[in-house]
Design goal:
- The protein has 7 helices and 15 strands.
- The model has no long low-confidence stretch (mean pLDDT 97).
- By secondary structure, it is of the alpha/beta class.
- Strands 3, 4, 7, 12, 13 and 14 form a 6-stranded mixed β-sheet that branches. Strands 2-6-5-10-11 form a 5-stranded mixed β-sheet, with no helix packed on it.
- It is globular.
- The longest helix has 21 residues, at 24-44.
């Protein structure tokens, strides 16, 4: 069959077969995706065995709750960010903190505090490197934003996230910090490690067939929001990580790798009330004003809540 034949056939299945009112947007998307899939089957001579193996794979990935991980690993989540960047550039928005992927491991409802929070529950304090991270949330004109929300989450020293890893305490390494009257935030935590896809999972199974690893560099996730401003979804990477510029999720971006300063001055240790050297990261966030000229940055997707 040629592509025109396939398009007519897909139209008959999706549009002509409708015998009651249809959702126009769903109809439009399904028609396009179904037609493109049928074209791929024809062009690549995909066999029935290959097709049903693919269906079984997607069923297994869904059952394992790995479709979000797969979307990141195939670059689809990064592609959405590229499109969002282009839309903001067309709207004349420039100079804000770069966005990058959310990933599938956010959990809503983390404890909230003003100005400062300690993220870790102390169970790994003797094994990990203490981290203090601080900065200011600014608007696009360079003015501090008091009352902005900085939601932060990251992995522990085994590369696992609380809630999904039931051995951790609730909301370990997850907090919401409301900036103080000068727009500042600060938190204490531990330097996280990177993680890999489950080695026996469906995502790594496909990556193996593609000749790819499934590793991420150590990183810290953020949602940053303020009234009348565009929500920022981003993360910083820990400088020096082996996979810093080789992230399987394609999320590493210039501007999101701040220097990590090692502090061993006794006076600064005393000021932080720690008894060993610690790491310090300074990082400011710059938000855009809300605008109707670019698509919303509020993304409605399934997320865990605890």
């Amino acid at each position: 069959m040629n592509h025109a034949d396939i398009e007519r056939l897909a139209h008959s299945w999706v549009v002509d077969a409708a015998d009651r009112p249809a959702d126009p947007r769903v109809q439009q998307v399904v028609l396009r995706l179904l037609g493109d899939l049928c074209k791929a089957i024809e062009d690549l001579d995909i066999t029935p065995t290959e097709f049903w193996h693919g269906v079984a794979y997607m069923s297994a990935a869904g059952a394992a709750n790995e479709l979000g991980l797969l979307a990141a690993g195939l670059g689809l989540e990064r592609f959405l960010d590229i499109r969002a960047d282009e839309a903001e550039q067309k709207a004349g928005l420039e100079g804000g903190t770069p966005r990058t992927i959310e990933g599938p491991l956010y959990v809503a409802g983390a404890p909230e505090s003003v100005g400062f929070a300690r993220l870790d529950d102390g169970t790994e304090a003797d094994k990990g490197e203490v981290l203090f991270m601080q900065g200011t949330v600014f608007d696009q004109d360079g003015k501090p934003l008091p009352g902005a929300k900085v939601e932060v989450w990251h992995a522990n020293l085994t590369g696992n996230y609380s809630f999904f890893d039931q051995t951790q305490s609730p909301f370990n390494l997850r907090r919401t910090i409301v900036t103080d009257d000068q727009g500042r935030y600060q938190f204490r935590s531990i330097i996280p490690v990177g993680y890999g896809c489950p080695p026996d999972g469906t995502t790594q199974q496909l990556l193996n067939l593609l000749g790819r690893h499934g590793q991420r560099p150590a990183h810290i996730h953020f949602f940053v929001s303020a009234p009348d401003h565009r929500k920022l979804t981003t993360q910083i990477n820990i400088d020096g990580d082996e996979y810093l510029w080789d992230d399987f999720a394609f999320a590493s971006r210039p501007g999101l790798v701040p220097p990590v300063n090692r502090i061993d001055d006794p006076a600064q240790l005393d000021a932080k009330r720690v008894d060993k050297p610690f790491a310090s990261i300074d990082f400011d966030f710059h938000l855009y004003h809300a605008t109707a000229a670019a698509p919303t940055t509020q993304v409605d997707r399934p997320r865990a809540a605890a």
